[in-house]
Amino acid sequence: MVYNARWGILATGGIAKTFVKDLLRDPKARDTNDVTHSVTAVASSSSKTRAEEFISDINIPGNPTTYGSYDELVADPNIDIIYIATPHSHHYQNARLALESGKNVLCEKSFTVNAAQTKILVELAKQKKLFLMEAVWTRYFPLSVQVRELIQKGEIGEVLRVTADNSIGQGGWDQSHRMLNLDLAGGALLDLGIYSLTWAFQTLYHTLPLSQRKPPSSILSTMVKTASTGADEDTTMLITFPTTTPSNNLQRTSHAVAMTAFPVDSNPDKQNSARPAIRIQGTKGEIQVDGPAYRPERYRVISKTREGEPVKAVREVENVFPSNGHGMYWEADEAARCVRDGKLESEGMTWEESVVIMEVMDEVRRQHDLVYPEKIESTDYPIKL
Ligand SMILES: NC(=O)C1=CN([C@@H]2O[C@H](COP(=O)(O)OP(=O)(O)OC[C@H]3O[C@@H](n4cnc5c(N)ncnc54)[C@H](OP(=O)(O)O)[C@@H]3O)[C@@H](O)[C@H]2O)C=CC1
Ligand SMILES: O=C1OC[C@@H](O)[C@H](O)[C@H]1O
Q1: Are residues 133 and 265 in the same domain?
Q2: Distance of CA 77 to the CA centre of its chain
Q3: What is the CATH number of the domain that holds 31?
Q4: In 246-281, which positions are buried (b, 16+ CB within 10 angstroms) versus exposed (e)?
Q5: 301 Cα to the center of ligand 1, angstroms
Q6: Phi-psi category of 327—alpha, beta or left, where left has phi over 0 and alpha has psi -120 to 50?
Q7: Tens digit of each residue's pLDDT (9 = 90 or more) over 323-375
Q8: What integer pLDDT is reported at residue 269 of this predicted model?
Q9: Which domain does 215 fall in, by range?
Q10: pLDDT in tens, 293-314
Q11: Cβ pair 267, 289 in contact under 8 A
């Protein structure tokens, strides 16, 4: 039996459009034969007309219902799961609205503005027996799954160090733009740094059995804020994970350097996407992942060669994007399967891991006194933002 997930789309901005286009691509093209997707409703906080335009722009079939408010959307009985695509500042209020109304939720990254908000959403989902997932789409790429499996199989030995960079070399946004606007929880850390942290965590944390996953023992960071709004524009984190599997009785820790920036670029000339944005370094070799970190295109496995040994061939694997998609359909398939199976959370991005990553970002912000407006940081509900 094929399960069809009926989606409600909350907000009609840039990523909502990209996500819905991927939802509409033929699942069979990516060998997904057990779930399909349909969009049954779209809501815009701007107007019902905006929702109608969104539908006609993308040519969404099936005549979805349109709403001029999110309140109406969450009351629609013909929705299995709501995709939240508002700015970071609004995720807590929007996700809470959906959960309080009994709806399953896939919410864009960063999940919320702080860990306290994420914890409340998780408790609510648990209490109401609803599915809730932070939409960290990169984790569901076949490439990410393969890299995690290679690490777990010991292909590069004990992984001791990861460097992950998600820097875009862009700027010049207006102060009100969501990338810079503190009222929308803008800045590099929450928007882009989350992907560098994703790589640190999915390699050094997620690859361990659940019982062995331990939050970082130390977090050091540096941050540069933009003069215009005070949002962070260049943030680097050094994250140390406690040892869980001592090798040869050596109490070694692993660590990650997670970087993100607006003014510098992980791939400056854009001519060659074969720049490793991520390096995963182990005792027996290294896996390099070519950026951008949020939409990686390939990885290569380089085995360590000892003096006198023949050099082993470098294995390079492309991440293929079936039906010329963006790659958001893999997370959508995962969400649909979880809802179908009555799972409340996804194994690829557990609630616990989302909370730990939010706690890392809280700590980095604390170290640099980066605070968003009180309304945005608040756990009160409902608040009109
Ligand atoms: N996974 C990925 O690759 C990407 C994820 N993102 C994430 O998606 C989210 C949205 O980003 P993006 O689509 O680029 O943002 P946009 O600014 O393009 O869209 C945001 C939408 O949110 C709604 N919204 C509600 N309240 C506000 C408000 N006060 N100010 C602005 N918008 C508001 C609007 O829709 P409406 O008027 O219809 O209600 C708006 O169109 C962010 O969390 C971001 O981190 C972004 C880009 C890529
Ligand atoms: O999630 C994202 O990935 C792609 C970036 O361009 C975007 O700013 C960010 O929100």
Answers
A1: no
A2: 28
A3: 3.40.50.720
A4: eeeeeeeebbbbbbbbbeebbbeeeeeeebbbbbbb
A5: 36
A6: left
A7: 999 999 999 999 999 999 999 999 999 999 999 999 999 999 999 999 999 99
A8: 84
A9: 158-318
A10: 999 999 999 999 988 998 889 9
A11: no
Please choose from 86, 191, 199 the residue to mutate so as to test ligand 2's pocket, defined by most ligand atoms within 8 A of CB: 191
191 pocket-lining for ligand 2 (C-beta < 6 Å): yes
Residue 123 corresponds to which amino acid? Answer: E
Q: Is residue 19 domain-shared with residue 126, that is, in the same domain?
A: yes
ipTM: 0.99
DSSP string, 192-225: IIHHHHHHHHHHHTTTS-GGG----SEEEEEEEE
Q: Is 378 part of a structural domain of the chain?
A: no
Mutate to test the pocket of ligand 1, among 21, 45, 52, 349 (most ligand atoms within 8 A of CB): 45
Is the pLDDT confidence value at 35 over 60?
A: yes
- Is 351 touching ligand 2 by the criterion CB < 6 Å? no
Partnered with residue 276 across adjacent β-strands are: 290
Same domain, 62 and 179: no
| Domain harbouring 303, CATH code | 3.30.360.10
State pTM to two decimals: 0.98
